[in-house]
Amino acid sequence: MNRLNGKTALVTGGVGGIGSAICKKLADAGCKVVANYIDEAHAQEWKAKMAAEGYDFAIVKCDVSSFDDCKAMGEKLNAEFGGVDIVVNNAGITKDGTFRKMSPDQWGAVLNVNLMSVFNVTKQFVDGMMNKGWGRVINISSINGQKGQFGQTNYAAAKAGMHGFTMSLAQETAKKGVTVNSISPGYIGTEMVMAIAEDVRNQIVAQIPIGRLGKPEEIAALVAFLASEDAAFITGANIAANGGQHMM
Ligand code: NDP
């Protein structure tokens, strides 16, 4: 794996399950990593835990669903770090419900945090990347954006939308050395998924040909690869990492 020394990476939702693994993997590859968060207490606890593991992460509070918040974050990071070279749009939420029961709030919140955020955050850093002639935008989508999922019209629409964004921006930035890709994870063994009742979890695993949940580190490794020089010819792609649960 090529080293990413001298690069600065921003990971939205960096203090979460998959986000933490991404932050560590990028730091291991030599990046200066900034983890974005929204919940102050959680972030402080996380920063202390990471420090105990030997990681010195910068953290930045920002509601990625708010353009104004993202603008302020962009100004702060561009001033402090001279731009951000790698943006990982990882923050996400679910608010499941069948379409008949889904409220406009449930729909709006999920679209705003998962999809509007990709515009809000990426917008702050793409000009800088293009001016430097190097950059990476990596969007964490989902298997359910590829295949749909009962009870997730909001989440699946947002996650599928991320990939439309990816393919379009990739075309606009390719000549300037900026690649834009999506990753669509299947079920990953984060705290949230491990909290699902064991019998339900076993039913999920039974649908995964590889026979287990994914590991956050496996998604993080893919992010680090896409960020590397070795991946310079990959852009506009959506890479599935789902244990064979959905193939297309
Ligand atoms: P987590 O809930 O552990 O992490 C999500 C993170 O998003 C949290 O750190 C949270 O911050 C942050 N966040 C939520 N809302 C906002 C907001 N408005 N502004 C800024 N940050 C926000 O989830 P995972 O690690 O499991 O998921 C990470 C990504 O991977 C998500 O996009 C998810 O959709 C996707 N994914 C996950 C799968 C899985 O099996 N786990 C499968 C497929 C895709 P805070 O902690 O401060 O509240």
Features:
248 residues; alpha/beta; Rossmann fold; seven-stranded parallel β-sheet; 10 helices; 47% helix; globular; binds NADPH dihydro-nicotinamide-adenine-dinucleotide phosphate
What can you see in these coordinates?
By secondary structure, the chain is of the alpha/beta class. The chain has one domain: Rossmann fold, CATH 3.40.50.720. It has helices spanning 17-28, 40-52, 67-81, 104-122, 126-132, 143-147, 153-173, 191-194, 198-206, 216-227, and strands spanning 8-11, 32-37, 58-61, 86-89, 135-140, 178-185, 238-241. Helix 1 links the parallel strand 1 (8-11) and strand 2. The longest helix is centred in the middle third of the chain and has 21 residues, at 153-173. The radius of gyration is 17 Å and the shape is globular. The mean pLDDT is 97. The structure holds NADPH dihydro-nicotinamide-adenine-dinucleotide phosphate (NDP). NADPH dihydro-nicotinamide-adenine-dinucleotide phosphate binds at residues 12-13, 15-19, 36-39, 42-43, 63-65, 90-93, 113, 140, 142, 185, 187-188, 190, 192-193.
Overview in brief:
The protein is an alpha/beta fold and about 250 residues long. The protein contains ten helices and seven strands.
Set down the secondary structure blueprint.
Elements: E1 8-11, H1 17-28, E2 32-37, H2 40-52, E3 58-61, H3 67-81, E4 86-89, H4 104-122, H5 126-132, E5 135-140, H6 143-147, H7 153-173, E6 178-185, H8 191-194, H9 198-206, H10 216-227, E7 238-241
Parallel strand pairs: 1-2, 1-4, 2-3, 4-5, 5-6, 6-7
